[in-house]
Amino acid sequence: MSDRAQEALAITLRGVDELLIESEFAQKLARSELSGKPLRVKLGLDPTAPDLHLGHTVVLNKMRQLQDLGHTVIFLIGDFTSMIGDPSGRNITRPPLTKEQIEENAKTYFAQASLVLDAERTEIRYNSEWCDPLGARGMIQLSSKYTVARILEREDFTKRFKAGTPISVHELLYPLMQGYDSVALHSDLELGGTDQKFNLLVGRELQKDWGQEPQCILTMPLLEGLDGVEKMSKSKGNYISITEPANSMFAKVMSISDTMMWRYYELLSARSLTELVQLRSEVEAGRNPRDIKVALAQEIVTRFHSHQAGQDALADFDNRARGGIPDDIPDVRLDGAPLGIGQLLKQANLCASSSEALRMVEQNGVRIDGVAISDKALKIEAGTFVLQVGKRKFARVTLS
Description:
The chain is an alpha/beta fold. Helices cover 48% and strands 14% of the residues.
């Protein structure tokens, strides 16, 4: 391999969980350099929710690195496979989305992905292009390429089968449909999270059946959410959306632990590995890890908003830390004074329920105009005031 190809391989390997098969990919890189023909790099995402979060950008960042190396990146929107629902990592059947839900979510996906990828150099495709024309005959022919025994080797299917948990027949088709995407796109490399490994390997096997050179597969770690335990997920509420306001994004990054901060740096930051080693050394030598976390939060906010937004978000965060009230809080108008504190917090959308609101009062997590509230039976008279729940939830309420 040339020095350039070796450098490209090193960039590709940064932060990855696994690259299969590395020697094959090295050969693809060398051949691409000699021929001047870029590799075709595929990432598929099913539009099961309208927003992308930072967990999604782990693999998008890797796509951008490969794009900057001169390769063709294909952002595949799984509008067909969304109707099946990816069963990866799930212990129950995912409720299928309607065509209307899928179309609505798909509208926003590429726009959000373009905050990381270079939109001008990205090939965007929808897998309904080749999946819809398959029809019943094509689906049967595709299904003949794989055995039930091999499909059930997938860990989540195995667990559900042994536990007697229902597995719908359409779920067994999902890995085949994702694999067929690689055939349709003549993929050289497919990216995904570690939970996608089985599906990516199916793509390799189907390409062989179609007489194509099998793709290599690259899996990226699943980014833990704000709780530092579960993978980042909208359904678990531990996520940072890439479209949420700058101040909220900054504050959420600052809420992660000092230990988890390094994980976020490795998977999300554009800083070099040499820089990260230097930052770790500085913390070990006594530098406050908060300074390092602030730099990470500003980098992320700058990427999805602007440099000025990153500066303003830091000022807002420091203001809140001193007990100040941020400028950009929602205005809420309510009727029914005098109103119990539990109902007030619920109607102001600061708590999901009145019982949750009363628990927050018990925990000294509620303030009115900066004054902590401890009386769960408190009734609030008409007027305008600022409600605060926890460190980040505020609303300016006018009650009549």
